[in-house]
Automatic annotation (TrEMBL):
PANTHER family: MEDIATOR OF RNA POLYMERASE II TRANSCRIPTION SUBUNIT 10, PROTEIN UXT
MF-aspect GO terms: transcription corepressor activity
Organism: Lynceus sp. MCZ IZ 141354
GO (cellular component) term, any one: mediator complex
Gene name for this UniProt entry: EOG090X0MWD
UniProt-recorded name of the protein: EOG090X0MWD
SUPFAM superfamilies: Prefoldin
GO biological process: negative regulation of transcription by RNA polymerase II; positive regulation of transcription by RNA polymerase II
Family indicated by similarity: Belongs to the UXT family.
Amino acid sequence: MSAVDQKVEKFETYLNDVLRESLKSHLSEQNKICDEIAEYLKLKNLAEVLQRPDVCTTPLKTKVDLGCNFYVQAEAPDASKLLVSVGFGFFVELTLEEVVTFVDKKVALLKNASAHVNTEIAEIKARIDVMLQGLRELQNISGEIPSEPRFVF
């Protein structure tokens, strides 16, 4: 094996084992953050609906997910307060106004985290492009896709 082939193999190994795996983990982290933002926005929407005067006077009838999409009917006589997960397994009982304030702050934090992960994803993609360009140069492959002749008929 020549020195060029060894370098190519080393670069390909780094590209596939390190950079692409790092990209996968960052993309899954990005998806988790987006899912969490969606959950908090649903909670905010629920709190805003429950703040309406016609909804808050009657007991709240709902379905509760017990896990694995197994739902049971439930009734909450007082829907003026909600239990909100604040992280690390802790739940806090908040009024509907406090829920909206909390969700706004939490979503802002999650959006900042999402922006940070997005910049890391962009950096990883740039590194992948640089590695691919270096591999093309090592192997003397042009980066352009050859155009195929077009048939008129």
